[in-house]
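Batch manifest line 467
LIGAND: guanosine-5'-diphosphate
JOB: complex structure
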Amino acid sequence: MSRKEETICAPATSSGGAISVIRISGPDSFDICEKIFFPIGRTLILKEQAGYKVVHGEIRNGKEVVDDVLLNIYKAPHSYTGEDSVEISCHGSSYIVTRILELLIVNGAISALPGEFTQRAFLNGKMDLSQAEAVADLVASGTKAAHRIALNQMRGGFSAEISKLRSELLRFASLIELELDFGEEDVQFADRKELTEIIKKVKNLADKLANSFSLGNVIRNGIPVAIVGKPNSGKSTLLNAMLNEERAIVSDIPGTTRDSIEDSIVINGLEYRFIDTAGLRDTSDIIESLGIRKTNEKIMEASVILLVDEISETPEMINQRADSIRKMITGFDKRLIVLVNKIDDCDPSLMDNLKRKIWLDIDDSLLFISARYLTGFEKLRARLAKILEKGNFNQEDVIITNVRHFEALNHVSGSLERVISGLDERIPEDLIAIDLRQAIHFLGEITGEITTDEILGNIFKNFCIGK
Ligand code: GDP
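JOB STATUS: finished
ARTIFACT:
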């Protein structure tokens, strides 16, 4: 029996909740459940029940009662996977979940691989590949913005449009190939003007989507922030203060905790991720030992650089340090914010003097703070929020977050570029057809109309079990 014909099972919820859900999908779902599930107070045959029905009963192993459960029945093709499926809601004990899974396996089910439910949904035509990939993003989304993009993509997002344009290109490719079959005869089935128009349309879309990737990437993975500056300027105090403030904000919302997301804060629905904070956490002089090279690497990895200096420092020194970073980042899409720290610990005249002497032409990239007393933090948060103004993208904007899509779109754009110039220069049709086919191939890779086992394997192995 091939794996596709097997009935798979897995826990669909993570441990720790009051209720756990176990998922079963495949042709024998009902028969297998029948052997271990006993409705309370009546007899019924699961297979004969209508879809979307919930049945109350017990899971038993012989005479031993394992748990009191609810069984949700889904009939093919009206289920997540498109197959006959059952979801068992049991009590959230890892012992119970393991016992039920054991019983399912003893009675003929096999353990699902990561992402196998979603892979089956894809193979059964319930969703295309980019939608299936969005499911993983949706499960992983930790901020409002990431959630919105994943949801858009799961609902079909750009793949429906790509699929439509792809079939138009396919029609043209076939027409051109037909012309080639006529060999020497000078016939043209494919209207060149129409062809050029559609190609430009597809190329524009591919470019637009590819361009959205850097934004998408930032939204999905967070904006990398580096905190740099000389030892004792207050970098770790600043980091801890920002993280603690975040925890305080979030822990006001009942039932939430941000402890699981290390070293990041959320401003306006976007995540800012402090990179390489190990050195900052350690109180020994790791900072010196890591040296300049490490700091430079950190700056190059970040989108935002927070340079922390002390109010007791001379303006010349601060300018010099800021300048050297600015030199490093010119030409890159990076922002520098200079934070002059410890303003609680100085004479107000000192601050005025500094303010005058530090390059004031640099918009609002200079902030005076006290990491110890959280002074100036509101301004810092506002400044960080402003960095990604594009972050306030429209609800309808399609943004790609997936490097696989990004690469495929670049290939599409490159091949179409060659088709356009080929048409201009009237190069032989057979060469144009090759580039056209290539673009069609890469478009198909995005939606899954073209797949290889390697592509599928790579995508689904990153899913969690039970999804
Ligand atoms: P780092 O080496 O840059 O990480 O600096 P630390 O965060 O370890 O801070 C060095 C010293 O400066 C510590 O004694 C902090 O308590 C102190 N410090 C940090 N921020 C402030 C501040 O805003 N005001 C004052 N007065 N002291 C601070």
